[in-house]
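Entry type: protein chain
Record version: 2
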Amino acid sequence: MEQKKEAVYLINDERYLHLLENGAGVGFATYNKVTGEQLESGQISEKNLPPDGKNAIAAARNWYLFELSDDERKVIQLESVKILESVPASGIHKRRIWEPETMPKDIRLINSHYDDLYRIPDGGVIQIDYPDGRSFTAKLEHLDDYHFDMGGLGNVFHICQFADTVYKLDCADGLGLMTVYQVYPGIQLIYNDFEATSCYWDGNIGKNVLEINHCREGREGSVLQSGSCLYLGEGDLSIHTMDNCASEMSFPLKHYRGISVVLDLEVVSENPPGILTESGIDIADFKNKFCADGSCFVMRAKDDIEHIFSELYSVPDRFQKPYFMLKVQELLLFLCMVNVKQEKQRELYTSPQVEIVRQIHKRLISNLHERLTIEELSKEYHINTATLKDTFKGVYGQPIGTYMKTYRMKQAAALLRQTQATIAEIANQVGYENQSKFATAFRDVFKIAPAEYRKQNSGD
């Protein structure tokens, strides 16, 4: 989908919000709808926008509404940029060439039978209320007739997903969404999408509830009741009782996408899916098999897991619910055949070790010109070199050197997309004095030269 570089929104039928991408992020200005008087103007820094450069206008719109505007009302509709031609202060009247005007499109929200539940204008805001009194609002952006973006951070939903339950979790530095489907009595399938480093979940969970997690993208960390920390990488699967994990989930790469299957063992035992009854499987045995003595079972990425879960990330929309039922049955049958003793477990890390590694990570990414050795970090932070290397890789998924090289190149890619700085200047900003070495490192990560990357990702 082509990304907007400029947009105008009418807010509360009172003022226009004009957004325009620039080298430092997105500039904004507001104008009185009636008089055309400029009310305010400013800049939304790129640090408050998606790091991949996508959906910048949508994210800037959200940032303005929820961080910069004091008005609690959030009635917003997309307008043509041409509407500001008659407002001299906007400077738009000086433009000579216009793209064909397109009409804003409605977003349909439907149930599983494709009956319309609601229609929301493109760019409109919805409020979701829960029985316990919690609520949150989010803006929607039309993608096509069957999909929309929620929150402006690339969280794509099918228009029937709100027939079930969506939770927004408490993420201090980003957005976390969990879309919950009731597949069988006592069995839920949950899509997890997080663009944050951590979040908290305060639900009351019983001892006889198992959670099966599959990591599709990013990394996910949990703190067990023992104080040990467990991390899942892409393709890994874990099984634990819900009461065995602390309420905080962490996402070291600030991105996580995965699926959870939650089993209430008592409810499932009373109302088992037919396949369990026919095969003679007692779901209550799962707890002793995978979580004996408070342990957490982890299966490293393998083709068997990929086969089961990969198809759940691209379920044909009209067959979603029956497909979930089939896949959950397949997963349960597969787990019945797993020999726990033959599976090599993920290493656990102590909370103090993880905290030191987090401090080191923060230090490394805060000053890209500083190139510290493992030995220097080990001495300064009082941690054994082997422990440092193992724990860093366990938390962030790569050795320190590889991780920092990739991190520098991702920062460079953002600068190539968002600024007009020369390649030599960008190389220096990410810690490379030698432009040739920078170009080689960039090509190693992105399989393309920096100049060609900029050309392919320019807005021209």
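Comment: The chain has a mean pLDDT of 82.
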